[in-house]
Design a protein that fits this description.
There is one protein chain. This protein has three domains: about 100 residues, no CATH class; about 100 residues, no CATH class; about 80 residues, no CATH class. The protein is built from seven helices and 16 strands. The chain is globular, with a radius of gyration of 24 Å.
Length: about 300
């Protein structure tokens, strides 16, 4: 049964002032947390994901899919949607309690002139720029960051390195931010995480560590680097694969045919089963291979 079959009733969540749930004009589960709006957006294969909007100036029953633009990850079901919304409500309350200060700034950053600053502390400042942003730590603060994660100069970009600041000074961040930072550091710097916290990350706990394990396990296997639905062999995907998925000049390439229903790329690539997926030497749907055949 679809998660949309039993929509969350419009109500005020107990213990979470300012949080309400309802159903949109097009039948989606939606919620409002202050000026933030959230929706459980249907995706392919019966899946859903969390999306957000901002300052929608209409009642929830009039909201539509067009009001939401930011993607925040997959949702298992309706209960996961409600949990995600309440988690973000908690985050907003904690952030307000932390008393972060907004200010104009004239600082020069690695990403361009600062267009605004958020002071997490007097010497822990997040700068926004036209195209990017990140934290700047004073020399004294930066010296407190573990050497395995420390960035010379104290500038930490907003995509991943911000998490280094959060795990180094957790009292300046909300619980939601700390959980996100933990996942980011485990994913991006697993060796540092294991050294700092004296633990061993298990399979599934670090994207980078899992990718390295995949690469070691399949170093000599044929891994797909390009794929296209075959126009010559109906019901098949024509793929180009290389040993270990390597690329670059001099790398051997082979073409294979994979049945449509089998071709589902995993986290780090599709591994050819040479006993089941035949090497293909026929007409190609790849323009580059067509040119090779013609030359």
């Amino acid at each position: 049964m679809s998660a949309l079959a039993s929509p969350i009733p419009s109500d005020e969540a107990p213990g979470f002032p300012g949080v309400s749930f309802g159903v949109s004009a097009d039948g989606m589960n939606v919620a409002q947390v202050g000026e933030h709006a959230y929706a459980m957006i249907p995706a392919r294969d019966g899946r859903h994901y969390l999306a957000s909007g901002w300052r929608i100036q209409r009642p929830m029953p009039e909201w539509t899919r067009r009001d939401f633009y930011s993607h925040h990850g997959d949702l298992a079901d309706e209960a996961a949607f409600r949990s995600a919304v309440l988690e973000r409500a908690e985050h907003q309350r904690e952030r307000q309690a932390l008393g972060r200060r907004q200010a104009h700034a004239t600082a020069s950053t690695p990403w361009g002139p600062s267009q605004g600053a958020t002071f997490y502390a007097e010497d822990v400042v997040f700068h926004s720029t036209a195209g990017h942003g990140g934290f700047h730590l004073s020399g004294a603060r930066n010296a407190q960051v573990h050497p395995m994660l420390r960035v010379a100069g104290g500038w930490y970009e907003e995509d991943e390195a911000w998490a280094i600041v959060a795990i180094s000074f957790p009292h300046l961040f909300t619980a939601f931010e700390r959980r996100s930072a933990e996942r980011t550091v485990k994913d991006s710097w697993p060796d540092a995480w294991e050294k700092i916290f004296g633990t061993i990350l298990q399979p599934g706990e670090s994207r980078t560590k899992d990718r390295h394990a995949f690469e070691r396990e399949h170093a000599n296997d044929w891994i797909v680097v390009s794929a296209i639905t075959s126009e010559c062999e109906k019901g098949f995907v024509e793929v180009v694969a290389t040993p270990g998925g390597r690329r670059g000049a001099g790398t051997e390439e082979r073409r294979f045919l994979v049945p449509d229903e089998e071709y589902e790329v995993g986290r780090f690539g599709f591994v050819i089963d040479v006993d089941r997926h035949p090497v293909y030497g026929g007409p190609s749907s790849f323009i580059g291979w067509q040119r090779r055949a013609a030359s």
